[in-house]
């Protein structure tokens, strides 16, 4: 592949290959990888038109661990704020000769637009409500560390603001591809249109939804994306949909908890669960570096006899 735009372009074999590669970048001979010369001479641009802590930093760390040169362009401080178009900004970045551009944008389809326009590799670092492929891949990497290769037949509950979540869309597809039974739990106003066509079981009651699952993925209530008049009452939302210790006791004894971050503690996930041994939240961050090393490697070396 020239680009990574969505997990829908990946086969199960692609995913296994990528996760194996990520594991090999995390540790060599049981020692953490701090720096290898693999991408020396390659250039990665981090083009973040929407805010990010984890995705942007971990792509930067990933590129640097592989010895690529990494450069950042954010909306703030760029000529986007003087009205320059996405197309002209993209062509300007391309003229500087990057091998890969990672783009985050509030518009669904922005990464595909860049991929059609430019010859370099494009990674979708999250576009609107549409897709966040490296998040879903790193979530599967974290789950594989907990479950080994036994994904088929496991069950995972995605809890919270699913309507506005690119993380949910990418994870539903990828987890279903790997044989996981996916449940969703959200208030009706935070379920996406057409959810009846998704390969999931939908619940409105958290106590029922969480029963006997192997993992719960809590999602941030995306306050900045709520439609006027549809923002839930926050106290009521927290009372019905905030994952607490009593809920987790209804899940399988070894059940894990994920959250892509940033967390609204006390709104969709309680403090005690966010910091509990069952929480994989910081493992997900570490997995993000390894997974993004694999993605950058595959795209940046695709013309050098690499495995992409
Ligand atoms: N999970 C995630 O995408 O986090 P950031 O918005 O901080 O990158």
Summarize the structure in short.
With 308 residues, the protein is α/β, with parallel strands linked by helices.
What features would you describe in this structure?
The chain is α/β, with parallel strands linked by helices. It has two domains: 7-132 and 285-300, Rossmann fold; 133-282, 3-Layer(aba) Sandwich (Rossmann fold), CATH 3.40.50. The chain has helices at residues 12-26, 54-65, 86-94, 110-117, 133-147, 166-177, 206-209, 234-241, 245-248, 271-274, 281-300; strands spanning 27-28, 31-32, 43-48, 69-74, 100-105, 121-127, 155-159, 181-185, 200-203, 215-218, 256-258. The strands form three sheets. Strands 9-8-7-10-11 form a five-stranded parallel beta sheet. Strands 4-3-5-6 form a four-stranded parallel beta sheet, sandwiched between helices. The longest helix is centred in the last third of the chain and has 20 residues, at 281-300. The mean pLDDT is 95. Bound molecules: phosphoric acid mono(formamide)ester. Phosphoric acid mono(formamide)ester is lined by residues 52-55, 126, 135, 260-262.
